Amino acid sequence: MARRRFSVNAIHSGHAELTGDEAAHLTRVLRVEAGQQFEISDNNRAFLAEVESARKSRVVFRIMEALNPEPGGVEVSLFVALIKFDRFEMLLEKATELGVAAILPVRTVRSEHGLEKAAPKRIERWRRIAVEASEQSRRTRLPEIEDPVDFAGALARAAGVRIFLDEDSTAPPLLQALPPSRSPEDCVIILAGPEGGWTSTERETAIAAEWTPASLGRRVLRTETACIAALAIVQAAWQIE
After folding, report:
1. What is the pTM of this model?
2. What is the CATH number of domain 75-239?
3. What is the pLDDT of residues 98-138, one digit of tens each?
4. Which terminal Cβ of the chain has fewer Cβ within 10 Å, N or C?
5. In 113-148, which positions are buried (b, 16+ CB within 10 angstroms) versus exposed (e)?
6. How crowded is residue 2: how many other Cβ atoms within 10 Å of its Cβ?
């Protein structure tokens, strides 16, 4: 069985510590003891570590050795229109497990105004979900969960490949929309719309800003489903190069 992995803020002089709820879970639920071994990550490298002490809400680790770095791969970010929070959190969890580099919530014409107002208060919760999903999937680096931006701000972001998921049936299939020449060092952004779809003005603005429209087929998918499917397709496309 693979060792459990935990994220720590930093490593100093060969030691690292967990505090707060996660440390309390280790001591009270898992009942860790000195000498037990786990993997830890400082959001840069992963290490094999041994528990040096475990008391209430503080666990101290001693670094034993650095683990082999994860192989490189295409960097994929998801820019997602604000959707109902339970669905957004499911998307966040699954996208993190799949290796997304960043998630940016986007305010769009058809986003619910209540969600827009409440979103800034959810950022820390969303980041905690990303940490938990990263530990579960044994990621070394955490995804970046950014503060919400408006549609124009999202369109202004730069990347080598910028894909605009479009429910319009005239858009080419996603695989065909991807560039034929691909490198593991590429950066890709996938932009997905709200539950009500894009407005014609948003669609025209994205295309004018040189985002590539792409379709996931004839079926109308929920935003979270479209994002997960698109992320998997893009990652697979780069892996077979």
Report:
1. 0.88
2. 3.40.1280.10
3. 999 999 999 999 988 888 889 889 999 999 999 999 999 99
4. N
5. eebeeebeebeeebeebbbebbbeeebbbbbebbeb
6. 6
